[in-house]
Amino acid sequence: MKNVYGYKSTFFGRGPVYSDGPGGKMTLTKIKAGEMGTSISGTVGVSVKAAVVEAKAEVSTGVQAKATWTSSHSYEREIRRGKYGNVQYGVKGHTAKVEKYLTLPDCSKSQRKTATVKLANKRQGFRYWETNS
Questions:
Q1: Which of 14, 29, 36, 114 stands 20 to 30 A from 49 (CA)?
Q2: Secondary structure, 3-state, the chain
């Protein structure tokens, strides 16, 4: 029985959100170094290592226990007229549910606990979006 399931792609933003506009060009030339580790919320008795191994098999070979980056990145983007551009650096990863089952004396299984796992990925980069204000 699987311990990790219900994977959803997501972006884990790290650090500040940079905004510019309205309209024009947005240029971001320096980002602080940082890291994002795979984590499990709650106590379910499933290790981060086990969650990463299962996620590599089920979703993406890029899943890892910790993603790190340096400060030498740049990003440039045209902002649509009348809009504000927003950029944040981060990790493109997954969220999933984690379950731990306990085998009872009669050999039946009952669900013990559930939690959410945030899985880091090798894929890192900028996320851009526009707003009206």
A1: 14
A2: CCCEEEEEEEEEECCCCEEECCCEEEEECCCCCEEEECEEECCCCCCHHHHHHHHHHHCCCCEECEEEECCCCCEEEEECCCCEEEEEEEEEEEEEEEEEEEECCCCCEEEEEEEEEEEEECCEEEEEEEECC
CA distances from 94 to 11, 76, 120, 127 (A): 8, 26, 7, 15
**pLDDT tens by residue, 89-122:** 888 888 888 877 777 777 776 766 777 888 877 7
pTM of the model: 0.61
Q: How confident is the model at residue 57 (pLDDT cuts 50, 70, 90)?
A: low
Q: What is the torsion angle, in degrees rounded to the nearest 10, for the CA atoms of residue 12, residue 90, residue 59 and residue 6?
A: 10
Query: Is the Cβ–Cβ distance between 53 and 119 less than 8 Å?
Result: no
Q: Do residues 121 and 93 make contact, with C-beta atoms less than 8 angstroms apart?
A: yes
